[in-house]
Sequence to fold (108 residues):
Amino acid sequence: MAKCPLCGKPLDWAELIGQMLVLENAEEIFRERERFMETFEGFVFKCPHCGEEFYGKNLPRKEAEKVFALLKEFKGSIDWENRKVRLRLNSLLALDTMLEQWDRKVKG
Ligand SMILES: [Zn+2]
Fold:
């Protein structure tokens, strides 16, 4: 799971993505995977625990890609009027990881 690169506390993906939603052209950015990843990596996030700022590229890329896929998959995942993420991304990511491990176990 994503952690703050400065204080090491766990971060909530829904909260992180919420920080990106203030971008004026966010709706466009969230439509295209390449564009999203590029914006994500260069975006300056603020840690809600220690208040320090860091770039998105300091966060796990694989998780960011999954987050994007989840946001795409679920209709209404983003409340554009209130600029808020409706999905509980951390729970979904945890579930996804669990299923992957299960899958490996079954096949292995
Ligand atoms: Zn921090």
Remarks:
- Residues 13-107 form a domain with the Ubiquitin-like (UB roll) fold (CATH 3.10.20.830).
- The chain has a mean pLDDT of 95.
- Strands lie at 44-46, 53-55, 78-79, 84-85.
